[in-house]
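User: Hello, can you help with two protein structures?

Assistant: Certainly.
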Amino acid sequence: MLAWISSLLSLPLVAFAAYAAMLKMYGVASLVNSGFAIGSFLGPYVVSAIGVFAYHWIRKKRPHYSSKLLAISCGASLFAILSLSNSLQALRTGVDLRAARNAAGSARDSVAPASRSVPATKWDTAIRAYFNDLRSFDEHYVSEVGQSENSSLPVYTPESFRDAATIQQILSQLHARMAVAEKFNSVEPLLNKIQASVQSVDASEAEKKEFLGSFESSARKNLASRKIVKDIERDWLNASIGLYEFTLSKQGAYSLRDGNLIFKSNGAAVEFNRKLQNARRLQAEFYQAYRAAQNQLATSMAQYGLQPSDFDLRPRR
């Protein structure tokens, strides 16, 4: 009786885990993705069964079928719980453009404050001015991202594909977001600006040249990480625009039912899911790269005895 009860309880748990895994993988649930859902449903039972039969074969025992059934259902439930936890965590992550603002804040707040460990030098004023400009640059970027999102619709949701008017609105906000990205594409002028600041320092030309060579070498590490962020950001926004332009071209070729997009053509559904998954992947990569660049900035500042708390520049939420 216990084995059968355990089996019946595991069925809805494993089925829900398979459904969540499909949403994580494709963003929408549809018949086109049913193969993935079936595989996700049967997988925990197959893996558990292999483990149970292998165990008893090694032990040279022939237990009652109820013992095997109980072990298989418990194993499948355990796999389902682990899969469900992973899927729900992924589904809770940012699919909203506002996450860029939160990413900036969390990255800065994650850096633990530390006392100054580097002796003061005659270059401190120029160094501080550079990092102050850099943090101000980031603050303005985050602020404009926030302004572009004040009236934005959530992207990648089934409702965002409801009709042509909604898709056009999404495209408009994505193009506005792209304009912000292009406006804050490079901080190279800030690196050039420090050269003028250094010229006002009371030091020989040889000392100035040596300092600038060392400083620029360190600063360009942060510039390299920022370039990666901007490249991924551009790819992500282009992929999102391509997704919605594709869906706009398919008006009348799909319908929205029970929160799902149902395409008349299997090929169109596969292409839609591919574009959606690619856009979500690039979005996640952008947030990850953004945080890495912010941490790289904190590391660069620490080399000169500075830390984020030295600057009263934090993104407004």
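That covers the first. Now for the second protein you mentioned:
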Amino acid sequence: MYDLLLHLHSLLRWVILVLSLVVIFKSYSGMTAGKPFSAGDKKVGLFLMISAHTTLLVGLYLWVFGPYGLANIRNLGFGEVMKDRVYRFFAVEHIFGMLVAIVLITIGRGAAKKPISDGAKHKRTFWLILVALVIMLATIPWPFREGIGGVGHWI
């Protein structure tokens, strides 16, 4: 079960990254060209938010019941986890960074519902999703990250 959820969590990462790029591109082009905030813009933002929240739920399950999150804190103690960069990454940095990114994605989606101008919607969405993307890129356990990338058999 753990391995299946880990692979799902990793697969959903790519969905989120692609949707983030689509939202950023659409928002930037809407912002610079003065395009209206369309139903398509809203749908892509909604799919991004749904993907992010689904990934969050799977990730929380992995953090609580998997070997690298809460289990390490319980078994080793928080102080020891913070001394080891791999344990710290999975127990604290990854989850914190992703929570912040998902909050920004959710706020960005909320901007589409506000009674503000289309230009303001594009601008808010652009900046919030761009910052969320940078945070996600920094806190994903990429395979090339020394010591972190191979942990947990990430895809």
